[in-house]
Amino acid sequence: MTSTDPRPGTGRPSYGERLAAVTGRRGRLCVGIDPHPGLLSTWGLADDASGLEVFARGVVSAVGDLVAVFKPQSALFERFGSAGIAVLERVLADVAAAGALSVLDAKRGDIGSTMAGYARAYLDDGGPLAADALTVNPYLGLEALEPAFTAAAASGRGLYVLARTSNPDSAQLQLATRDGRTVAQTVVDEVQARNDALRPDPGSGVESGAAGPFGVVVGGTHGQAELDLSAFDGSVLVPGVGAQGATVADLAERFSVPRLLLPSSSRGVLAAGPDPSGLRQAVTALVAETAVLG
Ligand SMILES: O=C(O)c1cc(=O)[nH]c(=O)n1[C@@H]1O[C@H](COP(=O)(O)O)[C@@H](O)[C@H]1O
User: Fold this and answer.
1) Domains of the chain by range and CATH?
2) Is pTM beyond 0.90 here?
3) Which residues are the active-site ones (predicted)?
4) SS3 for 124?
5) Is 124 in contact with 151 (CB distance < 8 Å)?
6) Is there a catalytic annotation at residue 107?
7) Annotated catalytic residue, options 12, 36, 90, 107
């Protein structure tokens, strides 16, 4: 397999390959689309599905040519029921039309048989909610997520598996240890094992230099800290930049693997709207900061 080979049957390069291509052109920044009621109000919009649509599609229209990855927050679309989901479908289409990648932040995770349903909704070709990648929650077990790993690999999509989340109380669960390893480290290692399983056999003579399609989420608020990412070769989604207090410069200091990082900011960028030029300035400044990540 070469670095440009499509996945079997999809005609689409792998998520790792597509991420490398778009971040190479646009810089390594993910902008979260989090339509909070307070932001809709600041933007002078009604807190209803029509306000949601103007807000979310307005973000993509303003900065869609500058941003490598958009991460719509499903919860803040779901709160408007089917009308909100319909807006989310249109936002995902807008992101694709803008040449950016979408990470749908839905943090799904359930027992395997139910997970297969989520995989069909978010990771199969033809699904209206299919994004380029999906955030998933491994705390029912990594095996339970298997349908999502399988569907993502088959369709050239990615997953971001929650490892060490940005909220202050995440340590109680995620830093618990078993057999000398933290739960968060176990997640990282298990995700890497699934990336390794997709690598061509080293003896086969075919090469793939691309990142694995399966990433992890590590909050920028505490950084890499106790995690060992030295053997990890997926993308590391790092939320917490901006409103939660982390800066891109902090990430350069707090992580030993800056080349893997995909920093993400939602409210920090969105507060610069609704003026499109304000949003463009905010994005341009953050993208420039990401240059320190190499
Ligand atoms: O998976 C995520 O994106 C995520 C993981 C995490 O550990 N912390 C975290 O804040 N997030 C999400 O990232 C976004 C952060 O938004 P801001 O704090 O406004 O930048 C929200 O949509 C969160 O749900």
Assistant:
1) 15-293 (3.20.20.70)
2) yes
3) 107 (proton donor)
4) coil
5) yes
6) yes
7) 107
